[in-house]
Specification:
The complex is a heterodimer of chains A (50) and B (242). With 50 residues, chain A is mainly α. Chain A has 1 helix and no strands. Chain A is rod-shaped. Chain B is 76% helix and 0% strand. In chain B, helix 1 crosses helix 7, helix 3 packs antiparallel against helix 4 and helix 4 runs antiparallel to helix 7. Classes of the chains: A mainly alpha (50), B mainly alpha (242). The interface between A and B is medium-sized, with 32 and 37 residues.
Chain lengths: 50, 242
């Protein structure tokens, strides 16, 4: 860990907050992608059977 | 082969199927290299101290916030002129990425501004236009959610995107238009003047590449989801009518 001096709180807060926002964005996008893929497969299967 | 072939949803899905994974991997590598390099292996600035390390997040996020809106403007215009659904869905898919980038830029700017300017916030031209851009992103996403008919939603959000472009441009050039603001000029520019030392510049470039690749990966992934949702909607409509 580098010596961040008297601004350690600000630097860590900026990196931590941004990291959380990016991880949340990627996680939500992946979840939405998986959910939409599953729903489309189910809908197409239902139509195929119907 | 025409570029417009990619406006076909099937062609878009086929092409991007093999691109999403590598784009995420490349983005992860560039972000890891740029941010680790910037955080651990660059010196403090003689005036800003260690807060200079915040630029490796703040500058790429701010650049992406403006450029994503520009991308949304182009795809919205393509929708309005050529009526390609994929372009409207790409704009819709990009908005949550853009709003996150704008939020990160505002947040990191405030965290940097407190020790450097002595305030978390100032009604400076660039900061204010950035805040308005953030509100436009929220309004754009809310408008998509509020309108049931997808084509009407695409039309109205495209118009909103054109209006919001004024603030995207202002966010970029406000520091050049008005000199009374606190915010400094561009850290990176195409002029010959050196605005930033090479020690900071190189990891910053890698970090910018990481943010850009992450945007590409996310917009492909999210556009693919939107295309699937549109297909589900169409199939369910057929089921109801049958």
């Amino acid at each position: 860990m580098p010596d961040l001096g008297k601004y350690a709180f600000e630097v860590i807060l900026a990196y931590g907050g941004s990291f959380l926002a990016l991880v949340a964005l990627v996680a939500l996008s992946v979840i939405q992608a998986r959910r939409s893929k599953r729903r489309l497969e189910e809908t197409e299967r239902r139509r195929g059977n119907g | 082969m025409s570029f417009w072939e990619y406006a076909n949803p099937r062609k878009f899905m086929e092409t991007t199927d093999n691109l999403v994974g590598p784009a995420f991997v490349l983005a992860g590598v560039c972000l890891a290299v740029g941010l680790i390099w910037g955080f651990f292996f660059t010196p403090d600035d003689f005036r800003q101290g260690s807060t200079v390390k915040i630029i490796y997040i703040h500058v790429p996020a701010a650049m992406m916030a403006i450029n994503i809106w520009a991308m949304m403007l182009v795809t919205s215009l393509v929708w309005l002129i050529r009526r390609h659904h994929v372009s409207a869905l790409a704009a819709k898919a990009a908005a949550p990425v853009g709003v996150t980038m704008t939020l990160i830029a505002l947040f990191t700017g405030a965290v940097w501004g407190q020790p450097m300017w002595g305030t978390w916030w100032e009604w400076d031209p660039r900061l204010t236009s950035f805040l308005i851009l953030f509100l436009f992103y929220l309004g754009y996403m809310a408008l998509w959610s509020a309108i049931e008919d997808p084509d009407t939603a695409a039309d109205l959000t495209a118009i909103l995107c054109m209006v919001g472009s004024v603030f995207a441009i202002l966010s970029r050039y406000a520091v050049n238009f008005w000199n009374q603001g606190l915010h400094q000029g561009a850290s990176l520019s195409l002029d010959k003047e050196e605005n930033i030392s090479n020690v900071f510049w190189l990891p910053l470039l890698v970090s910018i590449a990481g943010f850009f690749l992450l945007f590409i990966a996310l917009v492909f992934l999210r556009t693919r989801s939107e295309i699937r949702l549109r297909r589900i909607h169409a199939l369910e409509m057929k089921e109801r009518m049958a």
